[in-house]
Amino acid sequence: MLQGYTYPLSPRGEANLASAPPWNYAGDIVGVEFWTDPAAAEATLPEGLSPDPESSGRVVALFVDWQFSGQNNEYLDPVRSQYREFMVLVDARWKDQPVSWCPYIYVDNDLALARGWVQGFPKKLGAVAQTRVFAAPGSASPTLAAGGLFGASLSAAGRLLAEARVTLRQPASDPGGLLRPTVNLRHFPRLAVGEYDKPAVHELVMAEFLDQRLADVWTGSAELGLFAAPGEELADLAPVRTGTGFRASMSYTVTGVRRLEA
Amino acid sequence: MLQGYTYPLSPRGEANLASAPPWNYAGDIVGVEFWTDPAAAEATLPEGLSPDPESSGRVVALFVDWQFSGQNNEYLDPVRSQYREFMVLVDARWKDQPVSWCPYIYVDNDLALARGWVQGFPKKLGAVAQTRVFAAPGSASPTLAAGGLFGASLSAAGRLLAEARVTLRQPASDPGGLLRPTVNLRHFPRLAVGEYDKPAVHELVMAEFLDQRLADVWTGSAELGLFAAPGEELADLAPVRTGTGFRASMSYTVTGVRRLEA
Amino acid sequence: MLQGYTYPLSPRGEANLASAPPWNYAGDIVGVEFWTDPAAAEATLPEGLSPDPESSGRVVALFVDWQFSGQNNEYLDPVRSQYREFMVLVDARWKDQPVSWCPYIYVDNDLALARGWVQGFPKKLGAVAQTRVFAAPGSASPTLAAGGLFGASLSAAGRLLAEARVTLRQPASDPGGLLRPTVNLRHFPRLAVGEYDKPAVHELVMAEFLDQRLADVWTGSAELGLFAAPGEELADLAPVRTGTGFRASMSYTVTGVRRLEA
Amino acid sequence: MLQGYTYPLSPRGEANLASAPPWNYAGDIVGVEFWTDPAAAEATLPEGLSPDPESSGRVVALFVDWQFSGQNNEYLDPVRSQYREFMVLVDARWKDQPVSWCPYIYVDNDLALARGWVQGFPKKLGAVAQTRVFAAPGSASPTLAAGGLFGASLSAAGRLLAEARVTLRQPASDPGGLLRPTVNLRHFPRLAVGEYDKPAVHELVMAEFLDQRLADVWTGSAELGLFAAPGEELADLAPVRTGTGFRASMSYTVTGVRRLEA
């Protein structure tokens, strides 16, 4: 009897990219709120979601340095438990509820990719980086203070896809209502001839982030560029203007998703 | 209406890691046939497959330099279309048919990972390398001739998992019955609380490789080591003896898989 | 007239891997003090250094997450300014002065490699990782407190070369005299036939770290493994016992090295 | 007494990135001849070289898949012996001799970087890829025949720096006089304060490629783009028109360089 949760199933259940939850996360976020062409934002929405009439075209871009742990101090193996992520979250409505939708997301780690796919995050591989703060002061790092500068970028397949800069202005209790409940689309295709367009799994789910905690939240101003590349549609969401920039630490736990009835 | 085949679905259908087949492949293979403890081989088999009584414990390890193309000369974008792969294929029976089963497989490219998952190949990321032959002669490469030496290796998460050496002895018309029809397990978990052990997709399929062509096949002797690492069970299949080593070029096309009824 | 400091020199002086100092650094360090066979430690010393009779065989291993900046907020480009480093520092004497000597050092960034070579640090490429602390609490990261656990590792060419674990016990004002002045050997070979053994540059220098500042220093216990691999001699320094483990943040500036007269 | 040729010197002489020559190479080349603004080409030349009045502004861009070997079948360790390279070679004159000069070159391997620096090639790290040919026919690879299409690209620090396409037209005995003797500048800075602009090594040398052999040479037409990025000046050599494209295999041996007297 094979053991495990995701690929690969195995005799001892240790080879799988992801064992079953709980999945615990802690990370540092550089984020930029922006507005794109509302038609471009709406075009990314799956069936079941509609534009948010109060914030049509509003998107949040997040660059995150993550550390993962399951139930066995997996953070002690940083090669496998650390990863970097970029995502965009588009404002939408599920029925009457304001939600966000993630059309594009990139990570640099296959364990994170596997957990993401199961949650409905459509992860691809990318190289993500953000400026860090260090406790020892000096001119090699910004400080969490007004005027603090943070850069961040995303590349995939050797091409720059996104670049951001955030300038801190003031501490905040949270990133200002920037983060909403997230709806994902779990999707897994069929590969039998004639069934390519009849996916085996295709269902909206609500992400659930338990024990979500924020720390060291600062908001300010921001710049963001999204750049075109073959095999990518991220730049179709190019900013027409940016809103709040922010930098925060966040932690939470995932134990499951909740299926949304049509 | 979102377009595409795998994640991420998108307005124009260009962002997906893999569009629907046909998928065309060409590659160079360094392969090693070996025998492991039959109990270790059997322990990797999914429900529905049984050990092959005539070759219990027989496994083939393959290191492959691949190039992919769909229908648009994708090989002109080598960053995304080339990848390197390692896999082990365990002899098994499906009903009375001799088949092979792939418990562990590694690639260095997310497009290949996505196509693999849909086919039921449980791909993880790894770094794979093999000695190459070049048309210009000299002491920096072996030749396809008796005595030609080829090395190959697999690492994942910064740890060496497999290392092989093949010494060519004679040309062959094919790698000697080394390759069998391959049965895969398409698997995609549920993530609702309480349903972790009730996968949304869990089905045996037969891989179908169309227009399979071999060229420059040479067989000979081989050495192989499989090494233990955290989060891996590959080394549970450690060789007790090796059989034929080979080096070949291969091409084929995938248009789908065939579901196997229980 | 070509401009620049290191390779490549160029018309505008922007292409070089490293422009001339000042070079500013900030980083997080996971460190392990250990003792190896004194003969193994002594064998790594260049002419001009001798074993320290009071601490023969004593070595410190450092895993560092670095961020670099020159004079133009280079930390805003984290792809090029961040890097990870592993090094071992062997206790030695230069004349009567207690110093340390760095026989082996690895980084994951070519800008850091270039700056290192010029300083006399014999850098190779490697993949280095260490557990991080995040401001948002939870089970995905340790805290800077007694019992806090940190893992770290080094791989190169797909092989694990070093692995460490540190358990914090108490805060400290500094890592306990663990860090000494460092003597390096600047070395650049000749390549004319017959002159391979007559290097063009081969000179001992004293590293100078200005404005060195420490923060969040914690010491405790430690484990360390060093592992053999082809093309490496690091494991010849395998620990016979470990001493203090520590975790600290550090920053400093480099403006030059001081040549040591023979 | 420390052993070895380049960094790091060590007790057994096995840890160095490069041992002393001979260095043997075999590779596949995708190349594009092009013309840039003659002033841009001239601006890259070091003191001692002058523009070639007969081909001012002529440059050749090369993308190469290399395999290296010393005297011990190093090609059996492909992780360390294989690498990919991009370079541009600018037409120039040394005294009256037509030569080429390499202002910019990128590799993906530190052993290759170390050998390059010693030869005077100003190597940085980059990700280079080119379309491959495989012996097994099919639509996943071009063939060495009229109409065969090859793509190639260079990225560094996550940004696309160069992209080429070559269409084969006819076989050729060599790439048409495209390759000239190469003059390099060996350069190693001083780091003492006040001496940043007084390099310890700064000397023109003539590269010597022994037993140079070509095979499977095809020429044809070509496209090439060079793209701007921070910290790079390659795009200052942007093509105003392209000449011959080619694809070839090449092998040679390096035993030394010859110093050029001023």
Summarize the structure.
4 copies of one chain form a homotetramer. With 262 residues, chain A is mainly beta.
Describe the structure in your own words.
Chains A, B, C, D: This is Acetoacetate decarboxylase family protein. Chains A, B, C, D: InterPro entries: Acetoacetate_decarboxylase, ADC_dom_sf. The structure is a homotetramer of 262-residue chains. The first copy, chain A, starts with 22 loop residues before the first strand and ends with a strand. The first copy, chain A, has a single domain (27-135, 142-180, 209-256), classed as Beta Barrel (Acetoacetate decarboxylase-like). In chain A, helix 3 (110-119) links the parallel strand 5 (97-107) and strand 6. Chain A is built from three helices and 14 strands. Chain A is mainly beta. In chain A, strands 1, 2, 3, 4, 5, 6, 7, 8, 9, 10, 11, 12, 13 and 14 form a 14-stranded mixed sheet that branches. In chain A, 8% of the residues lie in helices and 48% in strands. The model of chain A has no long low-confidence stretch (mean pLDDT 97). Chains in contact: A-B, A-C, A-D, B-C, B-D, C-D. Chains C and D meet through strand 5, helix 3, strand 6, strand 10 and strand 14 of C and strand 5, helix 3, strand 6, strand 10 and strand 14 of D.
Question: What keyword list fits this structure?
Answer:
262 residues, 3 helices, Acetoacetate decarboxylase-like, homotetramer, 14-stranded mixed β-sheet, mainly beta, 14 strands
